[in-house]
UniProtKB/TrEMBL annotation:
The protein's name: MFS transporter
Pfam families for the chain: MFS_1
Membrane-traversing stretches: 40-63, 78-96, 108-127, 133-153, 165-187, 193-214, 226-245, 251-275, 295-315, 327-353, 365-385, 391-414, 435-454, 466-487
Keywords assigned by UniProt, alphabetized: Membrane, Transmembrane, Transmembrane helix
Compartments it resides in: Cell membrane
Kinase as UniProt keyword: no
Broad class of where this protein is predominantly found: membrane
Biased composition (Basic residues): 1-17
Boundaries of every Major facilitator superfamily (MFS) profile domain copy: 42-492
Length: 499
């Protein structure tokens, strides 16, 4: 018998040991993914995160007219309380999508929720305009959790459940605003306005813990370096364009400031696009974004965002204006928000139905149906707007339109991009919707301001101004319908140019 050898085992080479360590970490991540929570729990938590993010946009609506007195600032300065949130949401969303693809979608969702909590605390403690703008800017960053949540669903859910889950998460963009408005009105009516921001911070903290405990760690990652130059260029260009659009009515559309910001922003975005096409790891793969189904879906998203926000601007004003103006119904903010609320309820009910319909008839048909419903809503209001119940019916139709349309758009994106691009592509789609809402706020605001009369010392939009606004909203829905009809129906698996 040969004696047993007691030679020392030679250590592994450093590179090989590092590789084995990396493999072990990847394997541990996969094991954590297999031990993840039930799929229904993941869907529920991401839906709550989406509701939380969309709630940020209606949070200050009840106190918006009182902000100059509450913050001891001019009305032009307090307008930044809303504008800053809009800018932060538009800039952060596509950047957060790319970060999610590279470093893990759940990780970036947690970062955005932490930023929301920080911003809410700053706003809740604020007594002046500066800290309030900082807090609201940080709050706006949380909007990126919706496209990231959609991408997470594609990564972790069974194929049969993905469409319904995506429809639910997408619907939260409209549901959170419609349901959050009466909540904000109640809180602001019966307590101090700072409580609104403490509620937002508490909600963000709860959602942070739920995501940490329930949502699985992201295993699918996109290798490469983060494009800091591209992120800076996109941010500068978007801020310039959005500032020109959102503040042009106040500064003057032909003022040097508006023109320099708008034209300068467009030029920066053109240079940014040229740069993105020439680097190996771009912030956004514009070649993917230029594919016909993705491009047409994003353009339709701009139109759908316009149609949605036009209704958010016009209907509450009609409901709240005094009866003696000849344009309104004289309802309180709480009563007006209850009239608008059915649109959010319809979106919530439609979300599981939309997923099943998408599997049966396809998301393009769903988008077409949504656009037709929006056209019907604005057409109905043009013909019948003399009773409050007329506007209830119109808002129900709005709910059908946005419920179907917002459910269909991320499904179309998912079917047209590779898995490694889902976060960034959904972020770009969310940006398209933000551009639509920003444009609607600016254009409808100009119409209502220019077509107005002076009553009791204040400017009041005329009935004709609201009619023109309805025409603009319906026209945007028509554009969305035409674009939807030209979207190809091929899925990502059948697309010849995808890996």
């Amino acid at each position: 018998m040969r004696p047993v050898s007691h030679r020392r085992r030679r250590p592994l080479p450093r590179r090989r040991a590092a590789n084995l360590g990396s493999v072990g970490r990847d394997e541990n991540a996969r094991k954590r993914l297999t031990r993840s929570s039930p799929q229904w729990a993941v869907i529920a938590v991401l839906a709550v995160a989406g509701l939380c993010s969309s709630f940020m946009f209606t949070l200050v609506v009840p106190i918006q007219t009182q902000l100059p007195e509450l913050l001891n600032a001019s009305r032009d300065d307090t307008a930044w309380v809303v504008t800053s949130t809009l800018l932060a949401a538009a800039v952060t969303t596509p950047i957060a999508g790319r970060l999610g693809d590279m470093y893990g979608k759940r990780r970036i969702v947690l970062v955005l929720l932490a930023v929301l909590v920080l911003g809410s605390v700053i706003a809740a403690l604020s007594t002046g305009i500066g800290s309030m703008i900082v807090g609201r800017t940080l709050q706006g960053a949380v909007v990126g959790v919706v496209p990231l949540g959609v991408s997470i669903l594609r990564d972790v859910l069974h194929e049969k459940r993905v469409d319904s889950a995506i429809a639910l998460i997408s619907a939260t963009l409209g549901v959170g605003g419609a349901l959050g408005l009466p909540v904000s009105a109640l809180v602001s009516q019966y307590s101090d306005w700072h409580v609104l921001f403490w509620i937002a911070g508490g909600l963000g903290a709860v959602v942070f813990v739920l995501v940490l405990l329930v949502v699985p760690v992201s295993v699918l990652r996109t290798p490469g370096r983060f494009d800091f130059v591209g992120a800076a260029g996109l941010a500068i260009g978007l801020i310039g364009v959005l500032l020109a659009v959102s503040r042009g009515n106040t500064w003057g559309w032909l003022s040097p400031l508006t023109l320099s910001l708008g034209i300068g922003g467009v030029l920066v975005l053109l240079v940014w696009g040229w740069y993105e096409l020439r680097i190996d790891d771009p912030l956004l793969d514009l070649r993917v974004a230029a594919r016909r189904p993705v491009l047409l879906t994003n353009l339709a998203s701009v139109a759908m965002g316009f149609a949605l926000f036009a209704s958010n601007v016009v209907y509450p004003q009609i409901l709240e204006l005094p009866v003696e103006t000849g344009s309104g119904f004289g309802l309180s903010l709480l009563a007006a928000s209850l009239v608008v609320m059915p649109s959010g309820l319809v979106m919530m009910v439609l979300s599981p139905i939309s997923g099943r319909l998408a599997r049966t008839i396809g998301p393009r048909v769903l988008l077409v149906a949504g656009a037709i419903s929006l056209i019907a809503a604005y057409g109905f209001t043009l013909l019948f707007a003399s009773e409050v119940w007329h506007l209830v019916i119109a808002n129900i139709l709005i709910g059908f339109g946005i419920g179907f349309g917002y459910a269909a758009m991320p499904m179309l994106i998912m079917r047209s991009v590779p898995p490694s691009e889902t976060g960034a592509s959904n972020g770009l789609n969310a940006l398209a919707r933000s551009l639509g809402t920003s444009t609607a706020a600016a254009i409808v605001g100009v119409v209502l301001a220019s077509m107005s009369t002076v009553q009791n010392g204040s400017q009041v939009p005329t009935p004709e101004a609201f009619q023109v606004s309805f025409l603009l909203g319906g026209g945007a829905a028509v554009v969305a319908l035409v674009l939807a009809l030209f979207i190809p129906t091929r899925s990502v698996e059948k697309h010849p140019s995808l890996p």
